[in-house]
Design goal:
114 residues
């Protein structure tokens, strides 16, 4: 995929295998709309599951997590949004918000124990 996005504190690269996005930087109020547009583009470009690599994300606020959850809720046909690289404290927020079922953890995601 082409058309990578660089918004100062957030860089989003479109990936082909697996299909999705790779994010680096901060996902917050200032960059949320950029993420919305990038995810919408990625969803349109693939018929299968979508992969969001967040291993390069230093900070994500609850609004950014909501964007991910809303994207996942909006994917039709049994498709999933697979999120990789959530840090433990961010994963805990996902759990508290009840988005664990919709935000499928990828293989590199650090999850909380207990």
């Amino acid at each position: 995929m082409t058309g990578d996005v660089d918004h100062g504190s957030l860089r989003i690269l479109f990936t082909g295998r697996p299909a999705g996005v790779c994010c680096e930087g901060d996902i917050d109020l200032c960059t949320r709309r950029v993420l919305v547009r990038a995810l919408a583009t990625a969803v349109e470009r693939t018929d299968g599951d979508l992969y969001a690599d967040l291993r390069g994300v230093d900070f994500v606020d609850v609004g950014g997590l909501r964007v991910l959850a809303e994207t996942a809720f909006g994917m039709a046909g049994g498709r999933r949004l697979i999120v990789d690289g959530l840090r433990p404290h961010t994963r805990r927020i996902v759990e508290l918000c009840g988005w664990t079922e919709v935000l499928t953890a990828g293989p590199g995601t650090v999850t909380t124990v207990g």
